[in-house]
Amino acid sequence: MYVIAVYDVAAERTGKMLRLCRQHLHWIQNSVFEGELTAVGLRELEIEAEKIMDLSYDSLIIFTNTHVHRVERRIIGREKQEIDQFL
Amino acid sequence: MYVIAVYDVAAERTGKMLRLCRQHLHWIQNSVFEGELTAVGLRELEIEAEKIMDLSYDSLIIFTNTHVHRVERRIIGREKQEIDQFL
């Protein structure tokens, strides 16, 4: 399934969340990631995220589209993604 | 159509982008917005955003799902949205 993940976590946890999300998805901007995951892969991401996060403070939003119709994506302005290779 | 918008703009432009996006969509986290828009409504948002943005530096990503199958959304941790009423 197609997944978009967006996190908002305290500064001390952003490094770990960035590494975790990049193991499963593609970084596209700020704390925004996208990619294709199986249900098992998504569950793994969620479980690992819950270990990192302070669930009373941090937030991770996961958008999924299980149907064949993909979400279309348009970028206005600069594509930050190409910087990703240097991060 | 269902729309998710995520922006990454220079600090001096975040105020204007926040106000613009909140006129068209619902704030859900950081610089992340979602909602239902017509094609005309989405085009208006894009045109206004282009006026605000430095297109060589800033980035606005727009995800759209034109099909009846909505994108599902799950939140892990705190729902930041309810704070929106106080912003």
Automatic annotation (TrEMBL), chains A, B:
Needed cofactors: Mg(2+)
UniProt keyword annotation of Metal-binding present: yes
EC number of the protein: 3.1.-.-
UniProt GO MF annotations: hydrolase activity; metal ion binding; RNA endonuclease activity
Pfam family, one: CRISPR_Cas2
Residue numbers binding Mg(2+): D8
SUPFAM superfamilies registered for this protein in UniProt: TTP0101/SSO1404-like
Keyword field contains Magnesium: yes
Top-rank lineage group of the source organism: Bacteria
Alphabetical list of PANTHER family matching this protein: CRISPR-ASSOCIATED ENDORIBONUCLEASE CAS2 (PTHR34405)
Function: CRISPR (clustered regularly interspaced short palindromic repeat), is an adaptive immune system that provides protection against mobile genetic elements (viruses, transposable elements and conjugative plasmids). CRISPR clusters contain sequences complementary to antecedent mobile elements and target invading nucleic acids. CRISPR clusters are transcribed and processed into CRISPR RNA (crRNA). Functions as a ssRNA-specific endoribonuclease. Involved in the integration of spacer DNA into the CRISPR cassette.
Family: Belongs to the CRISPR-associated endoribonuclease Cas2 protein family.
HAMAP family in the cross-refs: Cas2 (MF_01471)
Protein name: CRISPR-associated endoribonuclease Cas2
